[in-house]
TrEMBL record:
Pathway: Cofactor biosynthesis; ubiquinone biosynthesis. Required for O(2)-independent ubiquinone (coenzyme Q) biosynthesis. Likely functions as an accessory factor. Belongs to the UbiT family. It comes from Shewanella avicenniae. Pfam families: SCP2. This is Ubiquinone biosynthesis accessory factor UbiT. Transmembrane segments: none annotated. Residues 46-136 form the SCP2 domain.
Amino acid sequence: MQGLFVSKMAASLLKNAPQVAAKPLAVIPFTIKQLALTQLTQTLLKEALEQRCLDFMQGKWVAIEITDVQLKFELSYQNGRLIVRPPQCPDVTFSARSDELLLIAAGKEDPDSLFFRRQLWIEGDTELGLQVKNLLSSLDPEKLSPIIRFGLGYSAQLLLWLQQQAATTPSLSTP
């Protein structure tokens, strides 16, 4: 019976957490989100920025849509730095749920496998989309700062555990 309770709680948390997160995100002005997203993307892509691996994005706009929390923004690389803006007219759009993006960032999930399972959608300039996807695949979470690596790793492990608990519903039937 305890297993059923844990399973139902995990399923409920996985279902409701994005909806809960979406509410405050909806009222936060984009300028505040822009500051946070700029810092987050610069942190996650620090190595790529240092190695100038983002030149292919010069003058191009990549939209990131986190579907379950209704967050969408565009990202570009200009003059050696990342620029974040509200959605306008991207060259390519990546769409996924927050849990899938977390697993990609933590190095626990491969963008290719999510794409082929139709959990990561890529629309628009296919060449640019492929370059961005390859960049995501090449990210090494071990090169992140220890505190970011810990936060991502812990969050990803918790998410994977919740998904496992939600998927293992004990049978209620008795012989």
